[in-house]
Amino acid sequence: MRKFLAALMLVLMLCTVASADDDVIKVGVFNCLTGQNAFGGQLELEGTQLAHTLNPTILGKKVELVIVDNKSDKVEAANAVTRLIENDKVNAIIGTYGSSLAMAGGEVAEKAGIPVIGTSCTNPLVTDGKKFYFRVCFIDPFQGAGAATYAFRNLGLKKAATLVDMSNDYSVGLGKFFRDSFKKMGGEIVASLFYQSGDTDFTAQLTALIDAKPDIVFLPAYFAEGAIVLKQAKELGAPFKFIGADAMDNPEIVTLGGDAVEGFMHTTFAYDPSMPEMNDVAKAFTTEWNKIHPDKAPNVNCALGYDCYIMLKDAIERAGSAEPAKIRDALETTKDLPTVTGMTTINATHDAEKDMGIVEIRNGKKTFIGIVQPEV
Amino acid sequence: MNRLRNLILTIIAVLLFAFFLDKAPTFLNGYWQRILNLIAINAILALSLNLIYGITGMFSLGHAGFMAIGAYVSALLVLTPSQKNAMWILEDIYPWLLNVNAPFIASIIIAGLVAAFFGLLVALPVLRLGGDYLGIATLGFAEIIRILITNTARLTNGSLGLKGIPAYTTLFMSWGCLGVVLLCMVCMLRSNFGGVLRAVRDDEVAARMMGINTFRVKVLAFTLGCFGGGLGGALMGNLITTIDPRMFMITQTYNILMIIVVGGLGSVTGSIIGSALVTTMLEWLRFVENPITIGSINIPGIPGMRMVIFSLLLIVVIIFRREGIMGMREFTWDIFFPKSKAKPKTEHSDSDTVLEVRNVVLKFGGLSAIENLSFDIKRGQIMGLIGPNGAGKTSAFNVISGFYKPTSGTIKFMGKSIGGMSPDEVCREGMSRTFQNIRLFGHETVLQNVMIGSRIRQKYSWWMTLAPFIFTDVIREDSAVKARAMDLLSQLGLAEFADEKASSLPYGAQRRLEIARALATRPKFLLLDEPAAGMNPQESEELLQFIRRLRDEFDLTILLIEHDMKVVMNVCDYIHVLDQGVHIADGTPDEIKANPRVVEAYLGKGAA
Prior knowledge:
The complex is a heterodimer of chains A (376) and B (608). With 376 residues, chain A is an alpha/beta fold. In chain A, 43% of the residues lie in helices and 22% in strands. In chain A, α3 runs parallel beside α4 (99-112) and α11 (300-319) crosses α12 (324-332). Chain A is globular, with a radius of gyration of 21 Å. Chain B has 608 residues and is of the alpha/beta class. In chain B, α10 crosses α18 (446-454) and α18 packs parallel to α20 (507-520). Chains A and B meet through α1, β3, α3, α4 and α6 of A and α2, α7, α12, β2 and β3 of B.
């Protein structure tokens, strides 16, 4: 038994000896492939891999994806990025789902001077003060303001409330920016309630919300918990509407929530397979995705993973070189780049400025109902 | 001689390692330097949890909570006011906190102290619990800490976490901290106080009878362990440069627990080997998640694969070495050199009535174990307490030695009332006992068992053991205690077993060792609970001689419970007889033999 194990270890060790190649552009991908955020990280990786399959060469050089898992853990995230930079000598990095993981990895990349493009890390602190961190997503204040704008301007609702996951930075941030923006436009916040990740009973909060009589409740939850909230709200006969954010953008929500999610709206990136008018990039992405994954519809995470690669490819081509410093400079000047999630422009804080979409569940199907310009 | 050699070897090893760290950046890339850093931090965390769990035997699952406290305290102290201003985007930071600042070294020490303070707060109520309850209570505490951090946004920035913490944790810093922790811990564990910690783990009841206030010792060990947790957390925060509450979930504690279980519960060496192994293995195994090509076979990378393999390796370790890599052993330079042996030295200890028991009643609920027991023992007497099974003899022992509080009645020892005192207090008054079912500190050597008995007669405080080279009292007193212990062992014919594990001794020797350990507390009064149990006639004959010798050589008064009538009748000056909690007779051995009530109690009514 022991001998067998020793032999096995030896074989495994020999396998690690990899060959080096100069004519290759190495792109590191660190994302949560296991652990609590794996559902998002996996989808983003598949998006990036799809973009890579469609664009296997940049500047005539072969692109090699080096994929490492960060286990949804901070220490691992920092280790993973260090490994990509020091051992695999990558030219640029794509990742990750989860802002805290991006912050842990970002510090390492910053020091080494390797550019990173974040997929869906929306916390403003991720790129704050960083020279080498960019992202293809918009940030929490923008999205919170987007939901508020849609509720106040488009729907004409004057009284709102928020139900926020206290232990989640994403949820806390969005809730705050929604309230600020809604008040600024002249609306009234009638209640601000909280729960903790992992809660399963929301009746106390929902009863308090029903008493507060809002017109709409902003629910920046993850889809699993969000679906339960919507179910319980229906059971209690809550009269108000719910609006969520991009973390609710998952096909699973209809499966989990059934008819309780009917009429639920959420903000998201300006991409959905149900969109009537897609740009060419989005069309190509949707067609190719459906070829590879005929049994599952793409969501925003897949689109964002895809867009990171597109944005990186654009930067390398404009820089005319795969040198990390040059890629960084080119990324900074990304302007009106057509991506799956709309036209992408990188602003001074390295965040993507792009349109925001609104999706509503109609007849058990995600339906793209329009684009909103947030009043920040 | 050996000491000097070992010291020199240690210094050389430390210097070599420092040289290695100094040169590391030239031949190790950033990735391996990071892993080296992580090894040192994990080792600090493992050592501190091992002190609590492996060495003192308290099952704690709260380490992640103490790490969180340490990480946050240190981070809040080293962040600059402008960084803090930029980060608190949801709620405003407390104004007083904005300008609080400290140098890094000070911040990690304060981090450890704050964690230790919280540890003390938790320990005081919680350590009254034991075993699984303690585990659950500490688990709850860690969760409370995490939720508090999440909800006190003005203080901690809530779930957003902190970022941009300066990366002060360099190789020298993390390994330097580990060096200090290791030095203090090894010194403490080698002193007699270390023996006391292990004694509490092995047998708390016996430790209390050795005069050890076990509650205090546990609180101390727990608090010290929490200091280590806070220190490790602070170093971790400064290495990762960003922290948030979700970083300190229970899985963090499991990781540390895994390290100490793999390394060996209770072994300092094991904790260090364990952290090196676990940290490097987890990273090294990453390759199994990458696509692998063996010849023409292509295996696509499977995320999570390394955790599967890692878990399998763990299972293999546990199957083949259940006690972990090191078990409870430690690394010493002596393993490279043949063994040599040391040699042992003597001394003596003073009212006429030693013990006065008056109208003692002991009830458990409705059941009375002892009813109205009264007797006196004069100095230098060997007194027997006999009676059939369930007569209340051991209950009487437990009341006298402080394990039970009498329901009513008084017990005076050397003229002082001791009714209701705890066992360790009673011991300090000069009383010691053995147990019916032997209670040795099984994992310790014979010598250590006896030395632990002497701890209450030592004057130095526990904290001096962290730096014995400064507080030389520790070394001097420990060597005096050692000499005395060797002396006791040779008087009781146990000198040849001095370095053997107590649990490996033959039965008779274990009985004598228990007596030797009791004698080490320098008692004036000794209680022996069935010393002849399990002995053959030859051995019990020797025991007779031995008990008389004990009284004469150690100037003792002895109370003994015994079933072996030959022993009782031959050694006792006076005998009291109990039956069903009631005192039925007393007298000289000859009187007792002739007493019809005694015969009736033992043999039934018809026999009398």
